[in-house]
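Contributing new records

If you add data, match the layout below exactly. Sequence lines come first and carry their own label; structure lines follow with theirs. Keep one chain per record. Anything else will be rejected by the validation script.
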Amino acid sequence: MPSYNEAANIQSLIDEVVALPRGVDVLIVDDASPDGTGDIVRAHPLFGSHVFLLARTGLRGFALACRDGFQWSLDHGYSVAVEMDADFSHDPAAIPRLLQELENGADVALGSRYVGGIRVMNWPVRRLLLSLFAGCYTRFFTGLSLRDPTSGFKAIRSRVLRTMDWDKCAANGYGFIVEFHFLATRRGFHISEVPIVFTERCRGASKMSLQIMVECARAVLKLGWSRALHPQRLSASQRVESLELA
């Protein structure tokens, strides 16, 4: 969970995740939150056994936090990493269904707000319309067939993370989400969407801003340009070779 100023949510969220029957450990990747988020994590009774903290300094941002968290999971031998927000917009109760989707054969199980209908709680209409437009915009330029290509709630097999070329990810904000889906698909991995309910945060401040939205739009355009220049997707034999090399 990438976090910044989530002191109001982090304790309860950790408790819900570690209580899941699947035995999920928690890594909080905190960007030096001034509200003491990191201190709350360190004070958790399970800190050091099932709850961990990656306190980041220097260059910060959502994308770098995710990448550092993914690398931490690989370094510590986890077979699956689950990316989710630290504000309860992503329901921990959905994690077992994401993991089950991986067991059913998916390489990435993506929590989708728009599979089989719209499952968003407490959003104003303009925010919902913006999200739906972002999905259409992303599908048009990137060629992704995902109903919710901008979702940041997903379970990822370690073999996917080992083969990702992070140098091809230019976004530092939420545009990284689309970049990840695009690159994983180009590597031949299967992303399966799982219906979830997305609930707008009740506590704390949203990190979304005009600057982040502009960066996301630019990231999608760059991916579209890359797709136009290099339309060929990896063949099955190339995918097997890349896995062996990883």
